[in-house]
Specification:
Structural class: mainly alpha
Number of strands: 0
Largest sheet: none
Order of helices and strands: HHHHHHHHH
Radius of gyration: 33 Å
Strand content: under 5%
Length: 311
Amino acid sequence: MACTCLEEMGMFSRSHKELGIMEDEEEGACSCCKEFLRFIVLFLQAVVLIGAISCLAIGIYTHEVEYGSRQLSSLIGVSMYRADSVMMIGGGAAIIAITLLGFIGAYRQHKCMVGMYLCIFVFLALMVFAAGILGYIFIAQLEDNVRKSMEESLKKHYGVVVDKKRKNEDITKSWDSIQQSFQCCGAYGSENSSHSWALYQQETFWFIDKYSNGSLVPESCCLKKSPIDQHQLDLCTGKIQSDSNWPPTKLPPVLETPLNYTLYTVGCYDKLHDYLIMNGIMIGTAAIVVGVFMIVLLTFGIIFYRNMNSS
């Protein structure tokens, strides 16, 4: 009987040891899973950080570059273009800052820090998605609103009391700069459109209220060679009329007559269209791609947070 007792005690002792080994193995496997999960979170944070830097760069580019949203918003009449650029700048900078916080929290496995990071990150992810959606809404509005807004801006504000109205002065400078750089004239349309170069003498207050000083189109609508040939410039603007069949003296249609080769005859919307589309796609695509990675990071981040020990 004593023998039987000893055998039972030995079996119990072995079972207890085996159970302890199994527990150690489970803890080891769990620890490996946590480390792997932490590695995934850190990797995704690095990806999102790169994306945030890209968003910040795109936001600064589309806002501050020449003919960016800061300059064009007043002409095209779409305020969301500028708002979208500002959201990209603000969102990109905030994501960079908060991702660095999350990186430190995940690396040091500080649960409180990771929790705060995830809470703020949700808001930033929504902000980035909103910027992406606005980028594509802006593209959709180009055809409907921009042409009309550009025409109204030109008719009512270009060259009118620029010495007294700062808004008119800024709009006039923007129009002159765009017309020279994009080699365009007027709002939109081809040489035979009444909304391109012919719009100036037909409907703008600049011409109707005699602010043009005898010009039929502004000098910014003309090809300027260096050194400037003032006689050629006066011919281009219509101050000197040499041929009644030439624009700008001859109003549309002008297809069957020789064109004034120094006058830009295509409307600026037609020249800006592809440029604006490119910027809208760039903002929208960058923001949505980064937003997708942020959602994936949030998913793994929440799982990681729930498996962390309290610091």
